[in-house]
Design a protein that fits this description.
Layout (H helix, E strand, L loop, with lengths): L4 H27 L22 E4 L9 H5 L5 E5 L3 E3 L6 E3 L2 E7 L18 E6 L11 E3 H6 L19 H11 L12 H10 L6
The structure holds iron/sulfur cluster (2 copies).
Length: 207
């Protein structure tokens, strides 16, 4: 074909514009779509009902049977106790030996929830805390027995440790829910003080 500089000039312009438009076609489509971006942390993260976050542990119902640890595919649950524990059907609380350690290594945990289903007393659950972080591998091991000493069922991310004045409304509410054991639905649900006492009773004071 004979060279035609004018035709080539306009052809190049057309190719440049059309390839850019092809490349941007998907981006342009999303420019006019409804936005789904959340302004976290001002707005609460949109967690689905079956979201699997960091566990929460109801130590007062744990019978230290090790079934969760045996089911864990990566062996990241560590349990130590002074003796067997048995659940009292009347109160729904376990008694007997004391819990000296219940810990999960989140450097290994896959959040698969395989530890939750085998639990005979339904005391280990996947929670809604999604943003725990640390500076080394050791800090990824959460000692749930230490948390229970402070009346806590789940690890506290940094934002939970800030004063109310620095938190958005959803975060204040989420913290309040955890402080009031709002996710525990059992025989102690109406008595937070009693639950707190039973949590302490399950612990070995020497540990
Ligand atoms: S969620 Fe899965 S990996 Fe994590 S502790 Fe439970 S069983 Fe183990
Ligand atoms: S959390 Fe459940 S399965 Fe694990 S030791 Fe306690 S009672 Fe057993």
């Amino acid at each position: 074909m004979q060279e035609n500089p004018v035709r080539d000039y306009f052809r190049n312009i057309w190719l440049t514009v059309s390839t850019i438009l092809v490349g941007l076609r998907i981006s342009l489509k999303y420019c006019f779509a409804k936005t789904v971006t959340l302004q976290y942390p001002d707005v609460a993260p949109a967690l689905q009902p079956r979201y699997r976050g960091f566990h929460y542990f109801e130590i007062e119902k744990c019978i230290a049977c090790d079934l969760c640890a045996k089911a864990c595919p990566v062996d990241c649950i560590y349990i130590e106790k002074t003796g067997p524990r048995k659940i009292d059907k009347e109160t729904g609380v376990a008694a007997g030996g004391l819990m000296t350690r219940y810990a999960i290594d989140y450097a290994k945990c896959m959040f698969c929830a395989l530890c939750v289903d085998p639990c005979p007393t339904e005391c280990i659950h996947m929670g809604n805390i999604h943003d725990l972080s640390g500076y080394n591998r050791e800090s990824m091991i959460v000692e749930f027995t230490d948390l229970a000493k402070q009346g806590l069922q789940t690890p506290q991310p940094l934002w939970m440790q800030k004063p109310d004045s620095e938190l958005p409304a959803w975060a204040k509410q989420r913290r309040q829910e955890w402080m009031e054991y709002a996710y525990s639905k059992d025989k102690l649900s109406s008595d937070k003080k009693r639950r707190r006492e039973e949590m302490v009773k399950a612990l070995d004071p020497k540990a």
